[in-house]
Amino acid sequence: MKRIVLYIFTVIAILSYTDLSAQTMPANLIRVESKNIHKQGNMLVMDVNLNLDSLDLDRNEMVTLVPVLESTDNRYSHSFEPVVVTGKRRDRIIARNERLGNQVFDETPNSVIRYDSPQTIPMHLELSYQAWQHNANLYVVADIRGCACQQLD
């Protein structure tokens, strides 16, 4: 009897370890490609592609991608509407909560996209031009959430 309990405990410990190790993701999985940034009248227009080829998103996970334009001296920045990429099961959970009228996100995303590997997300970003935007840097902040919306590293 003690052997069976010890065996079950060992199997559970091994399975939980492999599950936790699969959730750690490096921060450089999202690449900004094909930047087309130009000034059109008094607007700054940016067409970029977010490459998610290196991303391995589990069924229960979702990643919120927030494009940020930051001045070269880091004094000014502008965050655009987020884009949410979901795993298959997380997509169903979000759709069900929206049908029930529950608030799903803190900030309304630009779009919610179901993850299909490999994937590229085209984004069209616009904002009124200001002098600090000259030679500004565009980057993406990624917030990866797992089951029960826990934040992953």
Overall description:
The chain has 153 residues and is an alpha+beta fold. Helices cover 22% and strands 37% of the residues. It has two helices and eight strands; from the N terminus they run αβββββαβββ. The protein has helices at 2-22, 88-99, and strands spanning 31-40, 43-51, 62-70, 77-79, 83-86, 111-114, 120-128, 137-145. The strands form two sheets. Strands 3, 4, 5, 6 and 8 form a five-stranded mixed beta sheet that branches. A three-stranded antiparallel beta sheet has the order 1-2-7, with no helix packed on it. Strand 1 (31-40) and strand 2 (43-51) form a beta hairpin. The longest helix is centred in the N-terminal third of the chain and has 21 residues, at 2-22. The chain is elongated. Mean pLDDT is 76; it is low at 1-27.
In N-to-C order, the SSE pattern is HEEEEEHEEE
**Main beta-sheet annotation:** 5 strands, mixed
Strand proportion = 35-45%
Q: Give average pLDDT, whole number.
A: 76
- Count of individual beta strands: 8
| Poorly predicted residue ranges | 1-27
Helix content: 10-25%
What is the terminal separation in angstroms?
Answer: 39 Å
